[in-house]
Write a structure and sequence with these properties.
single chain
Length: about 325
């Protein structure tokens, strides 16, 4: 087989649309990176929301459960990092890790009784969790400073090395998101991931196969909480300020939009959705007072023509393997 044939086979296995999409995203990052400005901040937030959505995808995509309260764990991460670094002078990385541990424990405490519910009851219980956490962040002013929020949160760093440059922040956030996607991919194709997909298809069938449904649902919930906490901490250290509105109901709506636009249940979908949904408002901003209508129209068209998410377009142009005996 010639080198040209080998390269063609490799490209065909991934799909030409997927390769074109990867090149377009790389060029977009390069353009924003060198140009800087406001879009640099937009992409930074897209990376943070991408981390959140990758975790949410574990529970909603792989496991097929509904959760409207993951913003609660993002609040734990954000306020945990803010309090530990501003009030007690902790290193940002250490504060991030400890906040993730606290969020994981909270997920166990909340998830153990809550995940016995199913369907709409589970959705409402998790939604209540988010509302309670938001109310606590508003009312407990001695700890969270209420609507005044926390300011002066130091940037990420280790010892004397701190990430203060905006371009370097984007690179670090992109690396963290890529690491999160890699972990998601590895877990999805593991025995653990196959168990989650079995639960997503039918819980009764999964239980009949010997899968401990409640245990795996709780593990998926904890993983989603860890990702959400990391995203909350990253937001605090990137922006330098947090308030209750950051982790309110809008966060739930935005992340749900990103998840479904990119492709729920896919590996790359959450990251793709986070980038697209973050940049789309800037694209339609030129329509002036009709930008909200234009934004909604584009989202509706995506859901109509690509109901499984933009990541599924990667299959376009992919060569399917030839079955044995098909030739000759």
């Amino acid at each position: 087989m010639t080198l040209r044939a080998i390269i063609s086979t490799k490209l065909g296995a991934y799909g030409y649309f997927a390769i074109a999409l990867a090149v377009a995203i790389a060029l977009l990052f390069a353009w924003v990176f060198f140009k800087g400005g406001y879009l640099l901040t937009v992409l930074q937030l897209a990376m943070i929301y991408g981390v959140f959505c990758v975790g949410l995808n574990f529970f909603m995509g792989y496991t097929g459960q509904a959760s409207f309260g993951q913003n609660a764990f993002a609040a734990i991460g954000g306020y945990g990092s803010a309090i530990l670094t501003v009030q007690y002078g902790w290193e940002p990385i250490l504060a991030l890790v400890v906040s993730m541990a606290v969020a994981g424990v909270a997920a166990v405490v909340v998830g153990y009784p809550t995940l016995r519910l199913r369907g709409h009851y589970l959705a409402m219980a998790t939604f209540a969790l988010g509302l309670i956490t938001y109310d606590v962040s508003v009312q407990w002013t001695d700890l969270t400073q209420g609507y005044m929020g926390y300011s002066g949160i130091p940037p990420l760093g280790i010892g004397p090395f701190t990430v203060e440059d905006d371009k370097l922040k984007l690179v670090c956030l992109a690396v963290i998101l890529a690491l999160g996607v890699w972990v998601s991919s590895r877990l999805r194709h593991s025995r653990f991931g196959r168990a989650l997909r079995a639960i997503s298809s039918t819980e009764l069938g999964a239980a009949a196969l010997g899968i401990r449904v409640s245990r795996y649902k709780l593990l998926a919930f904890i993983i989603a909480a860890l990702y959400a906490s990391a995203a909350g901490s990253l937001f605090a250290h990137t922006v330098g300020f947090i308030s209750p509105e950051v982790f309110g109901l809008q966060m739930v709506v935005v992340t749900f939009t990103m998840l479904y636009v990119g492709g729920i249940g896919t590996v790359l979908g959450p990251a793709i959705g986070a980038v697209i949904a973050s940049l789309l408002p800037e694209v339609v901003r030129s329509t002036g007072r009709f930008q909200d209508i234009a934004y909604a129209a584009v989202l509706i068209l995506m859901l109509i023509f690509v109901p499984k998410g933009l990541s599924t377009l990667a299959s376009i142009g992919r060569r399917r393997p030839i079955k044995a005996g098909a030739e000759g």
